[in-house]
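To fix ideas, we give here one paired sequence and structure record:
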Amino acid sequence: FNRIAGVFATLSFLTGGSYFFKRAWLGVRARMLHLDLPISLGLVAAYIGSMYAWWANAMDFVYFDFISTFTFLMLVGRWVQQKAVEKNRSRLLASKADPGEVAVMESDGVETRQHASQLKAGMVYRVEPGRLIPVRSRLRSLGATLGMEWINGESEARLVYGGALIPSGAVNCSQDVIELEAVEAWRSSVLASLLEIRPRTYRNAVLERFLRGYLLVVLALATAGFAGWYWYGGEMLKALQVAISILVVSCPCAAGVALPLADELATERLRRVGVFVREQSLWDRILKVRKILFDKTGTLTTERLALANPEALNRLSAREQSILLTLVYDSFHPASLSLREVLLANGVVPLDTDVRAKEVVGFGMEMEYQGKVWRLGRPGWHTPEVGGDSVFSCNGRLLTLFHFREEIRPDALEETEALRREGYSIAVLSGDRPGKVASIGRRLGLPESSCHGAMTPQEKAAWIRAHDRHDTLMIGDGANDSLAFNESFCTGTPAVDRGLLEHKADFYFLGRSLAGVRQLFAVARLRRKAVRRVVAASIAYNAIAVVLCLMGAMNPVVAAVLMPISSVVTMALV
């Protein structure tokens, strides 16, 4: 049985233990201290001491069972810790951060599908409706409607005509495929730099100082115990047993299981309210945040324009509403998306017909149905000039007029006020027009000095560099926030249709509410309380265990009993 236990302890030491040894060694080489170092120290001491005791036929000093059980518990704790983060990372499709393929027109007229990263200057390609334009390009089609919210935060679509230069990252909001000529290679494009995901490195200085002091105390006590017992007792084996037992029982075994459990419970509580933590180091950083920076479009406001006068639909018959829904059903224009959402929510269904609406670039949507021409578009397009954003007409006769506006998230005012009461400063960094940014700021009760508009991605990043004191949280949703994410201490994003920043953010949240941000702070404070209780219990346990070791009362049986008891106690505290 001793031989079998020795074989299994060796296998545990070489396989499971190697996970901690490698990480501890890499940390030491990088002059970083983390929990894997004391775990590795305890395992090495227990294994070497046990092999020596086995060779000396002193079976009362053999820790083979301890090595296997301890390694198993530490690996389970680490697995629990990483499983929670990986679940949140994989919840959204990784392909959302990929520009995808485009249809490239070869010189012989043959069309081939190529990944956007293969684009070079001079190549002619096509982009489908709703897709990103990957590189700066010249429009070859007669005209196109483009969404610029990813680039500068503008919620309205922009009309461009043939020959115009289009920035990378714009979205084809037209109903049809558009043809473009690339004027730069993918690697030189703005979108390529924004899609680049840089690894984040974070060092917890407080934890490193604690571990440094902890290791020095443990090594000093082990050395003192060995010297004392060898000096007064003269027994090398007993002196070694005292030193090894101190190194073994003072390993942070309870913390190695309880702290990952705290992380799992915290991430699970946040998952219930639609908040998903992607970076484990966020727990150590988030409570240092004092400045919260919001993008405007898609973050403080909803992703789409809102219909400002929904009562205008009441002027239409059920048949006319079905015709209107058919007009906007396949359109990616922001106004069409807004109307489609409202009509579908009201239970309206499109016409059961093969007739398809077509886009008249620069004017709107048009459809011939049952001998009549139905249009939705700008005022003055076959209708009188009237005040409004979009006109729905039949054969030039105005049926109703629609107004659209940006809609702030339902609880944005409540949540920003609550965050300010808790001592956080709030600022808005947006690429949209300063007037619109200031208007949103007034609706949220923010001073004008905290609302910054017309900012390029580089200007957002520079602003954060100038103001960050390792205390900023940036919350944004578009490509124009990507560089700012690289500079901010903590990052978060709402999960949206064309997601990019979910893959760069420390956390993301679902739904139309901003309440998840405050929930994150609350759960982080609760987790900190649990961690402090675990640390206090571990210190008390280690004090008792080390005293027993110095008295010579520690042995493998006592250690095997104390280890699971301390783990159960600390898990109960969590």
User: Anything to note?
Assistant: The radius of gyration is 32 Å.
